[in-house]
Structure formats: structure tokens, C-alpha cells
Design a protein that fits this description.
The structure is a homodimer. The first copy, chain A, contains ten helices and eleven strands. By secondary structure, the first copy, chain A, is α+β, with helices and mostly antiparallel strands. In chain A, helix 2 (about 20-25) packs across helix 3 (about 35-40). The structure holds a DNA duplex.
Chain lengths: ~230, ~230
DNA sequence: TGAACATTTCGATCATGATCGAAGCGTTAC
DNA sequence: GTAACGCTTCGATCATGATCGAAATGTTCA
């Protein structure tokens, strides 16, 4: 009985190094980063990072893009991001009493992007607000926008019509590893995050995946969405 | 900026050993197995398997249950199973041309259980049939039973009312790693698999997660479900 | 063409952890 | 009690792979 276990072990081995895990974690925001930047994140020298990146790219967990003398790396597919999401969810739960709970930076816990949508306290608050206002039904099973939800997002200028050949899903629950709560993912979640970036409600911090909520953003999330944040 | 990367790496390290990956893969059917059985699966001596099992249980990926002199191990939570699902999906895709595609046993590919629901060709065929008959809508986003689907399963004797305190989801898509197609998971998927076992449409093989489709099962899946199998 | 810079390749070193034999522990049955 | 059995712990060995210095490659720009 051949199983997929050897491939599973090999894949896990690629994530099992702290440097590579840091690189993958850093790339979870969906953006591309240079090899040098990722070396810093991983806390290793450029030549070591290069070795790690080569292994990840060889296994097609990462895609590489050359721009001049630099090489930009990004997650190869959303499937990889989704896998990492699932692993982080389990990684965040460690019931060993001896173990201190993972120390997550306050900024990271407050607001970050998870591949392409909002996560952290902000992501959960926006999701909760949309549920309270009957814009959204969401549980572990899946999610759907209500008529009022579609109207709400439409009023904000979000076009929810999928590109013709995109099979991307509209609503999907994503288990937030820092909050241990569901937040909204899928095309709708990505559209909200994009809007927030465009309108300068949130700004990406140069380092890492966390985002800063601007003063205007605080007002917008509270008044427009009714988020308790 | 503290991230969850160290915990992620540690978690991945637990899965990164072929023996442990085999053990976890074997336990993906949700049942409990003895340490000796798992040593066989992992292809190591009992004392080595014991060491692996202790590490997995310590990190709460497995739960252990003593029955007399034996110890039965099972996956600790459905969250662990879901994480492994996601990893197997990625593990099954390895675009390196040098690499032969993972050799999955014919029995495994034909029919198996994935934690608690049907997978493999059988799982996909049943799911496809339910979609063709308008019993089910399913995409990556989520899924729902139609009125006719509820009636159909009700006629088969499946009670879909959730236990009061269960927050288990009704329909969920699960990406089949051997077929690269969606199949039905969640409470509905589990109910169908249970029914099939009860009515002797499928039988668990003593070794491994694959199941045998009985002659009666072939008739039932074709005539009752309309599955092309 | 040559200089500056980002990145990779090579080679040697070093640490981690997987393995199994032997022995110990715990439970059950007689 | 004691024998049988399943499983775990201990100890020593061995293999894999992470690391960095040094050097090479490749790209851009002048």
C-alpha cells in the first residue's frame, strides 16, 4: 500500500527549519521579497538564505522572479498559503503547560494581512461587524454574503463579479491563529483588504506582514463597518 | 516582530520524519491504532516507534488511550486532520520533472476514508453524482445541500440534525490529493461514509486507510447515488 | 570594458536527531 | 506470586543537513 507519506515528510522537512519557516511566514502576505530581505528575516547570512530559497523554489513552494540583479521570491500558489494557514493554526495551539504561549508581536496580533485578506484583531473585528449587521454568514463550513452584504460592499465601490476565468471563491472562513477565531477570506476578503489599502485605512509596514491602522482607517472601520476596534 | 515561525518550524519538524509521516497518514482515517501496528506502518522497531509516538503525543498531535497493556493512538483533533489534508494536497503536487509522480497504491486511489468521509475515486464519484442530481452545491468556497439533497439523504435514513452542542459543519469541500478534485467532507460527508460502512457497501481493509467496495456497494453507489464508478 | 552590487556555488565544519540493542516498567492472566 | 506480553527508557552510534568563509556568477550602469 503506497501512500503519500514520503512526500509528506519531505514537504514538512522543507518547512521544518526555523529560517525557512520564517521566510514562508514572511511571504504569507502574498508579496514578493528580495533574497537579501528574506535573509534578514531568517536571521542567516545571504549565502545560507540563498541555499534555503533554492530548496523552496526547487520544490515549487516559491516562485522566483528576476528584476535586474535582484531576485524576488513569492509563494508559488494560493494552495501553499492555505496549507501554511492550516499549519499555523495548529502551531499556535500548544497545550504543553511548560511551554509559554507563542509570543506574538503586538503589531502582528493587532492587524496583519493573511495572504490577501485582513487578519488579526482587525480582521476578526471587521468580520464580526459584518455578521452583526447581517451582511455575512460565516462558519467553519463556508460563508456567504447576504443581499445586504452585497449592497454594502457595492456601496463601498467593491465589484464582486469574478473575472470570467477565475474560479476564486467569494467567501471562505479562515481560522485566525492569533485570535483563535474565524475571519473572512476569499475574494470578498481580498477585496476589502485591497479597498483598505487603496483608501489608506491601513498601511503595510516595511518589515513583516503586520499593517498599521491609520487614523482615517480607525474611523472608517468603526463608522462604515461598525467594527469594535 | 515576533511571529509564529519558530512554532511552525517545530510543528513541521514533527511531521518531517518518514516514520512519523507514515504514522500520521495511517491515522488519517480517524481510528485508533496500537503502537505495534504503527511501528509496522512506519517500518521501524517498536522502541523507535514508541519514541516517535511520544513526541507526537507530547505536542498533542495525537491522543493516547490505554486499554489493558496496549496503547491506542489517534489524531488528537479534527484540526490536525484538516492540517494534514492541506499538506497532503501540496505534497501530491511535485512539478519537478525529474521526480516520478508519487506512487499511490491502486487500492488507496480507488477508495479510502479521509478522517471520516469518503475519498479517492469513490469519494469524488459520489460527490460528482450528488452535484449532477442537484443534491449538492460544492466549490472551494464551501458547500450546501439543496432541498432535494436533504430529502435524498433523509430517504437513505441519514439524520442531518446536528447534535445540540456540536459546531461541526454540514458540508465542506476537501481537495482530494490523489484525484486533484473536490470531494464532500463535513457532517454530511461523514454521515454518508458511516451509512456505507453500516450497510456493508464498503469495508475497511485491516491494513491502511483504503476501503474495499463490496458488490452490494457497487450497486448501491451506482443505482442509489447514480455514481459513475 | 570595468566597477559595483546582489546573489549563488563550493568546501569544510559542526550540531541535531533517528536508530536499535538491552534493560526496565506496567498490566493482565493464571 | 509469577510469567507473558506490550510498550517505554536508556545509551551509544551514525547519518543528514545547516552553517558560514571564500570565491564565482550574473546584471546593471557608466
Amino acid at each position: 500500500m503506497q501512500t503519500i507519506a514520503p512526500e509528506l515528510a519531505e514537504l514538512a522537512g522543507l518547512i521544518a527549519d526555523p529560517g525557512r519557516a520564517g521566510i514562508l511566514s514572511r511571504l504569507m502576505d502574498g508579496r514578493a521579497q528580495t533574497a537579501s530581505e528574506l535573509a534578514l528575516v531568517a536571521g542567516v547570512t545571504p549565502q545560507t538564505a540563498s541555499w534555503h530559497l533554492a530548496r523552496l523554489a526547487e520544490r515549487a513552494l516559491l516562485k522566483v522572479e528576476r528584476r535586474g540583479p535582484r531576485r524576488f521570491y513569492r509563494l508559488a500558489t494560493p494552495l501553499v498559503a492555505q496549507m501554511l494557514e492550516g499549519m499555523m493554526t495548529v502551531a499556535a495551539i500548544d497545550p504543553r503547560p511548560s511551554r509559554p504561549p507563542p509570543r506574538i508581536g503586538a503589531e502582528m496580533r493587532r492587524a496583519r494581512t493573511c495572504y490577501d485578506h485582513l487578519a488579526g484583531e482587525l480582521g476578526v473585528a471587521v468580520t464580526d461587524a459584518m455578521r452583526r449587521h447581517d451582511h455575512l454568514n460565516l462558519d467553519q463550513e463556508g460563508g456567504e454574503l447576504t443581499a445586504s452584504g452585497r449592497a454594502f460592499l457595492g456601496d463601498l465601490g467593491i465589484d464582486l463579479h469574478a473575472p470570467a476565468r477565475s474560479r476564486r471563491v467569494l467567501c471562505r472562513p479562515c481560522l485566525d491563529w492569533s485570535e483563535q477565531r474565524l475571519h473572512l477570506a476569499g475574494r470578498a476578503g481580498a477585496a476589502i483588504a485591497n479597498l483598505a489599502l487603496q483608501r489608506d485605512w491601513i498601511r503595510r509596514r516595511p518589515q513583516g506582514r503586520s499593517v498599521e491602522i491609520t487614523a482615517a482607517g480607525l474611523v472608517a472601520f468603526r463608522d462604515l463597518f461598525g467594527a469594535r476596534i
